[in-house]
């Protein structure tokens, strides 16, 4: 058992799978010799060599296209798109190619690949390098979408994603790279499509993802301490497949549902979960479903502004308290 | 097969191969004409993009390919799919959106795919498949397999970003991929010359990637075959990609909706004089192939098209159940538990 | 007053604005000399000439980038992206450039442009030419998003979009191009952000967009005739700004909310509306909020399959009836 | 200003302009050094990309521009923004994310914009601004205005699709746009030669768009100035775009996070010998400019940097209210009623 950063967990997860399976290859900008601009892939080039760990030109379409062609014909590529904002320059592969090829060909073509990308705010980088865009992927049929919140989940979900036969978009949160957590020795393989109750509770269900998970937990502590509200916190972990059983099961227990989204408001994943709950669990709800999101605005660069746009533990706690009328 | 008693000069290609080149072109021609007829009868559904007039490109490359080589095509992909030996009935079935179609009607005419024949897909977003072909070639290089990935696209496709990214990428990684531009002078309705900074949209860009400038007569299957062979040999020798511009012309409109009124008068007629089938019939005659051998191919092809048509007309439409199959690898479409 | 097709209404709307304002220019693939592949812009090249109505190479990024640069510096460009699926090849402009420039520059830069695009299914074109992707635009802060259902709305909303100072993504439904409707003579200018009650009713609110509007209306007729259910049908028309007043006002009256979406299920615009209702009108709801959507799958090409994936009047009516327990 | 009593040969540029070229370079140099110091003190927030070593490119182009000409920059845009005359305090304020910043801290160092100076934005997604610059040039052409749109980008940017689309588009429409590639030999950490099919990533692509191959010494402001003037004259004459590759080198890492360990030993030292400021000091001496005049500029610049630093340190942080302003043209952010 070792304490690992979220950043190092990325390299650990990739290395674990590259050791196991020769068909796993890795490409991206500055990922090999330089170990990645977030230093999340340090050591892979040294261990696996330039044939398996490859630097590319600044050609995101070529990166994802090449990953797809290789995946179709027998490899299991991992492609890095440095910042998730840049998914926009290669979005055709995300939206039209990866997710549709199996269906359109009536199952002839497979696409087992992983796109890893740095997601989320907190670095004061401004509107084009800070977005939380997991809903860009969630809305596309045929993709799987994963976003871990801990080093352990990074390793286990990355391994599961690499072994998965479908294209997986894997969102790493930039503001979590420096965080640490215990990770057991030996092989770790998790399962996609399983949410985790990270804090049991009975009064309200708070559903969160990635950086919002520790914030939701902090909010829950505050709610408990200051208002005696016992909130259950769920880490969604995987948006597709979506573990509605765990989420709706919790809601049935608590009667109240909150989502905490870093993505801007409109059409966020929380809206999807809210709509499922409002349909399937309407009679179990004791009050409104409330979404706590980043406002529907581009992200400001300035630190003081960036700090207040994202949901904070205080804002989360306050909104839950107010809604519960406590 | 050899033309009996006629020693032939300059025959680097060989008559067996020439007969195959002819057969493939005729098969495409007759198929496409039938597809057009069936469209007029409303039996071919959706859209459809014919390669009438461009058969020599598809034939020249496909006949030069080996089993295991991969083809990446566009929405204008009937020709390339048939040329790799995919059953006519399955292709036509897909155009007619029947259950006997290559993809049981789920993909449609723009997405013809037959992995078992190396036809790795037909892509309908301009340019997308050039990087994908790079990936297939990368796999071959990485695994030490000696197949070549061949990527077909039109003149208009040279102006989209993915073209540029793929070419640079392929050269830097020295990939066994061959990029084939079928320059038929038009995008959908706009002449390529109106929107391109250079005369030859592919070949005049080759030097931007350190590649040789290659232009070939796309209406002469022999010329295409030779250039294909050279490019494949280069790729298999580990010497990297090629970019080949084939000059050709489509006899019909861009798609089923297009009467092609934008053509200057006389242009089609000029190109009809160089119709690839006509060119090739003459070639066979020059090489002394008896007319009867040519007629036999024509006849067999007619019968094949007839049989495929009947089979497809009789085929059922796709069952409703397949609507939700093969979204994910588990065969289904569940995005939740 | 003339009867006009939805297709001809496009050209009418553009022509109206080009006559009024010299700064309105129009570019796209095959839009000028050929009048567009959907023949929606026939006659513009002839009337306004090749300086204002321009054919482009197949370079969607150049098209949208050029539109933006021109808009920033004084023109009011209209750009056509032939099929909305192709927004994926120029998505950086949609997601990162148009909508963020004003904010990032603290209001220095403006971006008054319209992207017109053919959206939606019904042509048996298969998965890469049939998508309904209005949520791709709705989810991006800084854009406005419009999707008319009638020829009259095409003219009026197109004019309003062209005059708007913000970037507008304008979704024309391919399966509506051939439909007809009355359009008065003279200048027509509508307003963004106004939904329309297209059928008043008291038992349930059905919210629909574009091609789903006539289908929701047909469903409402069926519900009335066969089950005595009096449904109110709302044409959203503009997703951003969103007219929540009209929608929630109707819901408060009927107590029941249904959305009819052509886009695939996850993170569709209906989810957003459902989540707003489940928060703000929870106590007004008499039962579950139900979303009727295309299943979360790529679109099949075959006519019989395509016909059953989209919500049909029968499916809509049946779902409403069942939910109301009638 | 003229060097008194010294007739100067070969001075097509003129001493006034030369002094301005020097002043701009020194201003950038001193600003960037200060920005780096302030970053170490944690007063410059977020990221920041310095142009130390690349000053001659910014100066040469900006001094050749006329009021009304438009600049389109990247995240590495401090230099180009200052060179157009934007107040140092405002630029530094933005880097320090203060309320006195060019965009009041809302944009940050990667998005410097000053429309009143013709700085139409700094773009942080590689390649995006090349098509945007085309649009600005199209506006000028359409309205008959005679300004030029100048677009700066790095060597790495030549491999992304938007580069290709913009170049072709600009040539076909004959737009008054000038594309300036600052080849500093590296992308972020990867040498450009490792990932590019040709030696000169911009210039070796020029012929793909029917353009002249232009390479200039990017460390010599005079050379840059001359090439800029020629390109602008061509653009204003309605003769279309130019693509210019400036060979230069950044003395610091890619961004504040980068110690630039990937450099081969000695490379930096070699380039330091050709440091643009050093080159230009010598140039002025060759032209007989008295040392005192040079010193005066150095001194004034130091004072300017000092004053800007103090002003920014004293400036307040942005008020919370502006978080939601200017999302839409009505000044607010309402997406609903
Ligand atoms: C990204 C994208 N833009 C536009 C289209 C619409 N489109 C389909 S075919 C075509 C013309 C392609 O011309 P070319 O590459 O010359 O191929 P050809 O059809 O002549 O074989 C266009 C513009 C598309 N499918 N994808
Ligand atoms: C589409 C996209 N891909 C990747 C990046 C990350 N990135 C920022 S700067 C940079 C290197 C750019 O190199 P170059 O064009 O040579 O410019 P330089 O930084 O050397 O001035 C990269 C890869 C980005 N901002 N946008
Ligand atoms: Mg063509
Ligand atoms: Mg560089």
Q: How much is the average pLDDT of chain A?
A: 98
Give me the count of strands of chain A: 14
Which range best describes the helical content of chain A: under 10%, 10-25%, 25-40%, 40-55%, 55-70% or over 70%? 25-40%
Can you tell me the residue ranges of chain B where pLDDT is under 50 for at least 5 consecutive residues? 1-5
Q: What is the helix fraction of residues of chain B, given as a range?
A: 40-55%
Bound molecules: thiamine diphosphate, magnesium ion
Low-confidence stretches of chain A: none
Main structural class of chain B: alpha/beta
Q: What spatial order of strands do you see in the largest sheet of chain A?
A: 3-2-4-5-7-6-12
Cα separation of the termini of chain A: 42 Å
Query: Which term fits the overall shape of chain B?
Result: globular
Descriptive terms for the model:
heterotetramer, A: 326 residues, alpha/beta, 7-stranded mixed beta sheet, 5-stranded mixed beta sheet, 38% helix, B: 337 residues, Rossmann fold, disordered N terminus, binds thiamine diphosphate, binds magnesium ion
3D architecture notes:
The complex is a heterotetramer, with 2 copies of chain A (326 residues) and 2 copies of chain B (337 residues). Chain A is an alpha/beta fold. Chain A is 38% helix and 21% strand. Chain A has helices spanning 6-20, 44-48, 60-72, 91-104, 134-138, 151-163, 212-227, 244-254, 269-280, 303-309, 313-324, and strands spanning 2-5, 24-28, 53-55, 76-83, 114-119, 144-146, 168-173, 180-183, 196-199, 204-208, 231-235, 238-240, 257-264, 290-294. Chain A has a 7-stranded mixed β-sheet with strand order 3-2-4-5-7-6-12, with helices on both faces. A 5-stranded mixed β-sheet of chain A has the order 9-11-10-13-14, sandwiched between helices. The termini of chain A are far apart. The model of chain A has no long low-confidence stretch (mean pLDDT 98). Chain B is α/β, with parallel strands linked by helices. In chain B, 40% of the residues lie in helices and 10% in strands. Chain B has helices at residues 15-40, 55-64, 78-83, 88-95, 129-143, 161-172, 221-236, 267-273, 276-286, 291-314, and strands spanning 70-74, 119-123, 149-154, 177-183, 214-217, 242-247. Classes of the chains: A alpha/beta (326), B alpha/beta (337). Chains in contact: A-B, A-C, A-D, B-C, B-D, C-D. Chains A and B meet through helix 3 and helix 4 of A and strand 2, helix 5 and helix 6 of B. The structure holds thiamine diphosphate (TPP) (2 copies) and magnesium ion (2 copies). One magnesium ion binds at residues 154-156, 184, 186-187 of chain B.
């Amino acid at each position: 058992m070792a304490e690992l950063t979220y950043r190092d967990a990325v390299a650990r997860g990739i290395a674990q799978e590259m050791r196991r399976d020769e068909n796993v290859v890795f490409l991206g900008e500055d990922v090999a010799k330089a170990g990645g601009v977030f230093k999340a892939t340090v050591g892979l080039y040294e261990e696996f060599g330039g044939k398996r760990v490859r630097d590319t030109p600044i050609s995101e379409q070529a990166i994802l296209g090449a990953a797809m062609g290789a995946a179709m014909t027998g490899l299991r590529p991992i492609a890095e798109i440095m910042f998730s904002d840049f998914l926009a320059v290669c979005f055709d592969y995300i939206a039209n190619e990866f997710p549709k090829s199996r269906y359109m060909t009536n199952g002839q073509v497979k696409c087992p690949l992983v796109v890893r990308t740095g997601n989320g705010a907190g670095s004061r980088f401004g509107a084009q390098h800070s977005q939380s865009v997991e809903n860009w992927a969630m809305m596309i049929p045929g993709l799987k979408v994963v976003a871990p919140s801990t080093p352990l989940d990074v390793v286990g979900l990355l391994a599961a994603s690499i072994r998965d036969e479908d294209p997986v978009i894997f969102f790493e949160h930039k503001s979590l790279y420096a965080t640490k957590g215990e990770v057991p020795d030996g092989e770790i393989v998790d399962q996609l499509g399983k949410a985790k109750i990270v804090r049991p509770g009975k009064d309200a269900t708070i559903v969160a993802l990635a950086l919002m998970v520790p914030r939701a937990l902090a909010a829950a502590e505050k709610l408990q301490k200051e208002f005696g509200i016992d909130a259950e916190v769920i880490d969604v972990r995987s948006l597709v497949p979506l573990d509605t059983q765990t989420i709706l099961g919790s809601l049935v227990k608590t009667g109240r549902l909150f989502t905490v989204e870093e993505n801007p408001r409109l059409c966020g994943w929380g809206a999807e979960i809210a709509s499922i709950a409002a349909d399937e669990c309407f009679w179990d709800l004791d009050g409104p479903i409330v979404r706590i999101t980043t406002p529907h605005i581009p992200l400001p660069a300035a630190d003081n502004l960036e700090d207040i746009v994202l949901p904070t533990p205080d804002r989360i706690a306050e909104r839950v308290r107010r809604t519960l009328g406590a | 097969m050899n033309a009996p008693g006629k020693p032939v000069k300059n025959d680097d290609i060989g008559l067996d191969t020439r007969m195959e080149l002819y057969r493939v072109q005729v098969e495409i021609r007759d198929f496409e004409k039938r597809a057009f007829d069936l469209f007029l009868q409303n039996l071919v559904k959706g859209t459809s993009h014919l390669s009438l007039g461009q058969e020599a490109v598809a034939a020249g490359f496909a006949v030069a390919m080996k089993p295991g080589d991969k083809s990446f095509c566009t929405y204008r992909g009937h020709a390339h799919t048939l040329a790799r030996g995919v059953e006519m009935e399955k292709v036509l079935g897909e155009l007619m959106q029947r259950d006997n179609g290559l993809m049981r009607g789920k993909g449609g005419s723009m997405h013809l795919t037959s992995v078992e024949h190396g036809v790795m897909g037909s892509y309908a977003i301009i340019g997308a498949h050039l990087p994908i072909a790079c990936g297939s070639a990368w796999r071959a290089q990485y695994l030490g397999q000696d197949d070549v990935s061949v990527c077909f696209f039109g003149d208009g496709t040279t102006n989209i970003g993915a073209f540029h990214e793929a070419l640079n990428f392929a050269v830097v990684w020295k990939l066994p991929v061959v990029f084939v531009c079928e320059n038929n002078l038009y995008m959908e309705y706009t002449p390529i010359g109106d929107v391109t900074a250079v005369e030859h949209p592919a070949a005049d860009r080759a030097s931007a990637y350190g590649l040789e400038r290659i232009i070939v007569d796309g209406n002469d299957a022999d010329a295409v075959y030779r250039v294909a062979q050279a490019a494949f040999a280069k790729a298999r020798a580990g010497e990297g990609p090629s970019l080949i511009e084939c000059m050709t012309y489509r006899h019909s409109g861009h798609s089923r909706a297009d009467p092609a009124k934008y053509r200057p008068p006389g242009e089609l007629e000029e190109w009809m004089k160089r119709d690839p089938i006509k060119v090739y019939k003459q070639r066979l005659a020059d090489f002394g192939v008896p007319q009867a051998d040519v007629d036999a191919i024509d006849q067999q092809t007619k019968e094949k098209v007839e049989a495929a048509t009947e089979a497809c007309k009789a085929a059922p439409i796709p069952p409703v159940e397949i609507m939700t199959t093969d979204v994910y690898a588990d065969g289904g479409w569940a995005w939740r538990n």
